[in-house]
Amino acid sequence: MSTPSAPDTTEFERMLRCESYHAGDPYIRKIADEQAVILDKINAEPDVARRSALLKNFFKVEGDEAEKKKARVVIVPPFFCEYVSALRELCDGTNVVVTLQGFNITIGGDLFIHKGCTILDVGPGA
Predict the structure, then answer these.
(1) Domain count, the chain
(2) Residue 73 falls within a domain, yes or no?
(3) 3-state secondary structure of 44
């Protein structure tokens, strides 16, 4: 039985450096597809408190654990976002694990965003 090879992360690394990249790259599509599943769960959650907990796991939240727990994060669905993930590990069937650190979105305490928001999180903002 052969060992699966590590995925080619070249385009993903280019994306993180804000260089030109191919958005249809299989590795980037895999990450985007996994994020879409999480966003579907967030958007489908009718309970505001449970949706807030999902959002706090989705974004990077500043502060110590007590501050993170206390933060009120409300986004009225539908909410759209690319690629972001806070402290989650994506495993692609090989021994390679990529830990995504919220890419470029950090929440500093309480947050309220009304419906229809789209956040594009490909590169760091200026």
Answers:
(1) 1
(2) yes
(3) helix
Do the beta carbons of residue 102 and residue 64 sit within 8 Å?
no
What does the alpha-carbon distance between residue 49 and residue 57 come to, in Å, rounded to a whole number? Answer: 13
**Weakly modelled stretches of the chain, pLDDT under 70:** 1-4, 83-104, 121-126
Whether 4 is in a domain gets the answer: no
For tokens 């229809």, what's the residue?
A: 116
pTM of the model: 0.69
Residue found by looking up tokens 């986004």 in the block: 75
Domain region containing 93: 10-15+23-119
The angle, 0 to 180 degrees and rounded to 10, between the axes of the packed helices 48-58 and 26-44 is 160
Residue 98: predicted pLDDT: 43
The residues facing 74 across adjacent strands are 112
pLDDT value for 69: 83
Position 124 in a domain: no
Q: What span, in angstroms and rounded, lies between the C-alpha atoms of 69 and 63?
A: 10
CA 94 → CA 14, 54, 114, distances in Å? Answer: 21, 27, 39
